[in-house]
Amino acid sequence: MSEAIRTVTSTILLAVLGIMCLSGLLLTRLNILRKLGDASQLVAIALLILQLVKAKNARGISVRTQELRLTVFMTRYLDLFTSYFGPYNTIMKLVLISATMYIIILIKYTEPYKTLYNPSQDSFPHWKFAVLPCVVLSFFVHMIGSKLDGFSFIEWAWTFSIMLESVAIIPQLVVLRKYRLVENLTGKFVFFLGVYRVFYALNWIYQVNTHMFVRHRPLMYICGFIQTALYLDFFYQYCRISRLTRHCKGDPTTDDNEDDEEMDGLLFESEREMVNTGFTAQSLLSNTDHSLSLRNEPSASADAQQRRQSTQEDQ
Hints:
- There is one protein chain.
- Helix content is 74%, strand content 2%.
- By secondary structure, it is mainly alpha-helical.
- The protein has one domain (3-249).
- Strands 1-2 form a two-stranded antiparallel ribbon.
- It is globular.
- 32% of the residues are buried.
C-alpha cells in the first residue's frame, strides 16, 4: 500500500467516523447514553488511526487487541445477514468492522509499520488465553440457558462476543506495561474505549428499568464489570503518571531544542521506578529510536564504533 493510498484511505475513514459520530448524536432517536457510548467508541478508533498516521509507526499499539476487537465485531454482528435495524445501526456495524480491519492491515502488512512493529512487546497469547476460553465458556453458558433443542448459532456468537470483549483490551494493557511510554493518542484511545464501556453499562441499566421487553442478563453485568474494572485500573495509572511525566517534560537536563512532539506521551511506571531506573520520557524515546536505527542500519552502528575507537586512540 503506497503512502498516497494510505493517506487517502485514512482520511476517508476519519471523515466517515466523524460523520457517524455527528449523525448518532444529532439525527438518531437513541437515548443519550447510547449516543454517547457510540460516539466514544468512534472517537477512540479515530484517535488510533490519527496516532498511526502521525507517528508512522505502531509503537505502543497492540495489534492483538485489534484482532480480538475484530473477532468481537464479526461474531456480534452476524445479524447483518439476517435482520435489518435501520440505516444507522447497519452502517455503524460496517464502519466498526472496516476501521478495525484497516488498522490491522496497516500494522501487519504495510510499511513502515510492519517493520517497526515489535511482536516481543505485543506477546499476550490472545488466541490461547482469550478466544479459546471464551469459546468454551460461552458454549456452556448458552447451552444452560437455551438447552440443546433451543441452540442458536447467532445467539451463541453474541454470547461469545460479550465475553471476548470484556478481555479484549488485555493485550493493549500488556503492551503499555512493557513499552512503558504511553503515546498521548494511544492513551486517549484506551480512555475513550473505557468511556464507551461505562456509557453502555449505564445504558443496559436504563433499558432494563424503562423497557418491559428488556430482561436482565447476568452475563452482561458480569462481563461489563470485568471490562470496566480493567479500564478503571488503566484510568488510575494514566492519571497518576501524568503528573510524573509533566515533571519529566520540565527536566532541565533535556534539550530545549527537541521537538515537543517527541515528548507527546506518558511514562507508564511508578515514581519510585522512575527514580531508581533514572528513566525520563526523553531518554526512553531516545533509547527506542536508537534501537530502531540499529535494527534498520547495522552499518551505522559499525561506523559509530570505529569513530569511538579512533577518539579513544587520539586521547
